[in-house]
Amino acid sequence: MLGTVATSNNYGDLNNLPALALVATAGTYASLTGLPNLATVATSGKYTDLTNTPALAPVATAGTYASLTGQPNLATVATSGKYTDLMNTPALAPVATACTCANLTGQPNLATEPLLASTQI
After folding, report:
1. Other CB atoms closer than 10 Å to residue 27's CB: what's the count?
2. Distance of CA 108 to CAs 94, 100, 114, 115, Å?
C-alpha cells in the first residue's frame, strides 16, 4: 500500500517528519539560536566603535609636520635651499659669479705674452 504522499506530493503527508529549527524555514540570522554577543564594531566596521583603542599622537590623524612633536630646529637654508641663506659663506672672487675673463685678476696680456703650446699645459 502506498503512502498518501505518493499521490499528494504534500510534504505534510510524510511520516516521521523531522523537527526543523525555525532557521530551516525562516532562513534569517535572527532565527538562529545561541547567537554570539557581537560588539558594535563587528557590524559597523567603524574605528570609533572599537574599545580600548590606543591614544594616538596628533600627527597620526592630522598627518602634518606642524602637528609633529619634537621637531628639530632647522636652519633657514634647510627649507629654502637658497645659497644666500647659508651662514659663513666664503667671499667669492668676481669671476666666480660673473663668469667673464674681464673679472679675472692677474690675467695675461695676450698681446705681449705668448700662448702656451698644448704640450706645455
Report:
1. 8
2. 17, 14, 9, 9
Write the single-letter amino acid at 112.
T
Helices then strands, each counted (H, E), the chain = 6, 0
Assigned C-alpha cell, 29: 540570522
Share of the chain above pLDDT 70, in %: 77
Q: What is the Cβ-side half-sphere exposure of residue 94, based on CA atoms within 13 angstroms?
A: 7
**pLDDT, tens digit (0-9, with 9 covering 90-100), for 81-117:** 999 999 998 887 766 666 666 666 666 666 666 666 5
The grid coordinates listed for 106 are 692677474
Cell numbers 609633529 correspond to what residue?
A: 68
